[in-house]
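Person: I keep going back and forth on a fold encoding question. Show me how you would write down a chain together with its backbone fold. Please set it down just below, with no commentary around it:
Helper:
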Amino acid sequence: MMGVDGRLRAVVALAQAMASAPTPRDAWRAAAQGAREGLGGSFAALSVWEREHGRLRVLVNTGELAEDEEEFPEDETYPVHQFPEIAEFLHERWAGGGGPNAWVETATGHAPWPVSREPGYFPKRVASLRRRGRGCCVVAPIVLHGRAWGELYVARPRDVPPYGADDAEFATVIASVVAAGLAQTERLEEVRRLAFTDPLTGLANRRAVDIQLDEAVGRHRDEGAVVSLVVCDLNGLKAVNDTHGHAVGDRLLERFGSVLSVCGARLPGALAARLGGDEFCLLTVGPPADEVIAVAKELCVRAAELELGEGVACGIASTGDPIGEVRSARRLFRLADAAQYRAKAARASEPVVAGRDGAVLRLADAPPRAGDRRRFRDAPPRV
């Protein structure tokens, strides 16, 4: 049994591990692993209560997994009505002035101290313990922002002493540390989201494109992956702003952003982004150039059907086409932008594709002339 000093070290280690976790998944794993180690368990899981679906969804399993368990399960869920004690502890008892305390279940069905249950109620957790060869578990509710968030579950094998009241008290402490770690993770994720998201459309922003395009071109150099970039310029935005006001212009930008997102969803892993002003883009890694072109054609058709605006000018550059060596993000960006410039100048109703329109390559490589419209926005830097 871990002493007071050992438990203090376990709490500190848990807090540090969650604080240094770079992603939510890492934070979930750190929470479950820290709880398992601190409570001397062989298995631990972290679950979230999805109220809208009335279920507990398992986020992570750690330790000795049963055959039907995965570390990060995609669809391991349990209807809350099968676990009424979670609602009892998180609502009736807590609302009645008590704290959201942890409790213990054993494979024999007898807890170390009385737990209020309806007559004839047999805990599903007991059946789960028996089926998976475990002897007992401690369940600790997690409260975040004043609301029941989910639970921490730690189990022991049959051949070790079951958890007692002191273990449940310590599990309650651990759950509060986990809750603090989850709150920090949420705040960091929100900061990351704001840093890489366009606030008007909800699409990715220029910063996100800069980073992912550079990574994509790196994959092309190293693995030969096909990288395609569609650059779009929404026609007629200035006229809409001048005639109807900027609020209506913003709605047009939002509407086109939604169309871009829907079309981009046809390409696995595509990144839909607003570069700024009336300029948007779609970045893909993997799909052949012809598939990207087909989606861009659909995008042009749907943009032309919008109630306001004058459609969209699209330019495409793909390493799957004969566009020459692409060693940098700057090169691919210039080619896509040159194709978009040509599409806009020609008022083309379909995308212009670099490598399939020789003029685009000449345009991208020619130095700008005095008095010309600035043909290319600054290309993304190496990061």
Q: What stands out?
A: Residues 92-97, 369-383 have pLDDT under 50 and may be disordered. Residues 89 and 100 are 6 Å apart (CA to CA). The longest helix spans residues 165-195. DSSP finds eleven helices and eleven strands in the chain.
